[in-house]
Amino acid sequence: MSDTNTRIADLVGSNDVVLFMKGTPLFPQCGFSSRAVAILDHCGVAYESVDVLQDMEIRQGIKTYSDWPTIPQLYVKGEFVGGSDIMMEMFEAGELQTMMDEKQVAKAAS
Question: Are residues 48 and 74 in contact, defined by beta-carbon separation less than 8 angstroms?
Answer without folding.
Answer: no
